[in-house]
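Structure in, sequence out. Go:
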């Protein structure tokens, strides 16, 4: 009997939502009319009803990223617009040594960037090892929206970007050049745990219409071999979004993330019913159980369809910014 009542209620809400849709109301407006109950539109991964907008982004630069993302939201942007605007502000910061302009170069002194994005419909775009283009995540979005492909790399990615109107720019700043020249004196490849305090930015956003999107942008491990591509542009490794479940992103040593297909794993664990926090913990455990982690850091950040988030890292020191309509926090993730 109780179940009958529930299903009648669901049917009533569904009919009302459908009517609202026919009458031209946005999902946001429909949600306002129906109150807090949530109806899922499983077909395109977007909730028919409103969730509160939430954004999480890795490291300290997550704060300015989220600020830019919420500005995009207020201008009417989608979760994907929030991601792109958030990425652009960090990519354009020449003082940051790990994203966009100013990123530390590879061992040959060349700055190469990796980025990707993914939306609630499971559409994805990515660029790997792109040179001379300051906004690789925007190029990744163009790959997603303007081509039949998911990933472009190297010279092909750069040519595509130029074709799309991106202006080639020298990304090697004096600060990064000096750091590379100093590194060359010893010439040791020796990643330092939590150098990533300004490492890869992974960004996840849920907008007021329940759409989830994610993005990832980085210059990758500093002084890497020329041509090395990390986890950040690899869908499933540095980023994964399932609009009906949740989104996850990774930061830290990409090789460890790729070997465990980390972000996909986090989302699949959420699909199995885990809270984003527990899912991140399990994915970190997978790394700890499968390789020597004494000299590597990986941090996962996740946001589910309900707006719940979680984060966990191999070692201490990983932080992330959490922003909602009403609060702004920089939080240290748990570890181990
Ligand atoms: N997570 C960034 C990289 O390994 O390239």
């Amino acid at each position: 009997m109780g179940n009958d009542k529930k299903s009648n209620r669901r049917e009533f809400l569904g009919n009302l939502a459908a009517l609202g849709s026919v009458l031209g109301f946005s999902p946001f407006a429909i949600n306002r009319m129906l109150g807090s109950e949530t109806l899922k539109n499983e077909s395109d991964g977007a909730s028919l009803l409103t969730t509160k907008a939430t954004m999480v982004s890795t490291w300290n630069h997550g704060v300015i990223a989220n600020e830019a993302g919420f500005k995009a939201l207020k201008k009417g942007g989608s979760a994907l617009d929030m991601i792109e605007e958030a990425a652009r502000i960090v990519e354009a910061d020449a003082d940051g040594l790990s994203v966009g302009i100013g990123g530390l170069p590879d061992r040959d002194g060349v700055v190469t960037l990796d980025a990707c994005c993914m939306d609630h419909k499971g559409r994805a775009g990515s660029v790997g090892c792109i040179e001379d283009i300051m906004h690789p995540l925007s190029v990744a979005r163009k790959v997603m929206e303007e081509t039949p492909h998911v990933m472009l790399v190297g010279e092909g990615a750069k040519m595509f970007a130029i074709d799309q109107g991106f202006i080639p720019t020298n990304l090697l700043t004096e600060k990064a050049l000096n750091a590379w020249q100093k590194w060359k004196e010893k010439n040791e490849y020796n990643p330092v745990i939590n150098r990533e305090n300004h490492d890869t930015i992974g960004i996840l956003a849920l907008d007021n219409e329940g759409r989830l999107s994610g993005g990832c942008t980085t210059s990758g491990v500093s002084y890497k071999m020329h041509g090395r591509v990390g986890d950040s542009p690899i869908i499933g490794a540095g980023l994964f979004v399932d609009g009906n479940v949740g989104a996850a992103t990774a930061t830290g040593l990409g090789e460890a993330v790729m070997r465990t297909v980390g972000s996909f794993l986090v989302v699949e664990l959420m699909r199995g019913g885990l809270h984003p926090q527990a899912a991140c913990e399990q994915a970190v455990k997978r790394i700890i159980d499968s390789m020597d982690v004494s000299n590597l850091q990986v941090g996962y950040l996740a946001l589910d369809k309900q707006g719940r988030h979680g984060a966990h890292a191999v070692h201490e020191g990983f932080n992330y910014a959490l922003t909602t309509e009403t609060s702004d926090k920089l939080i240290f993730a748990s570890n181990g």
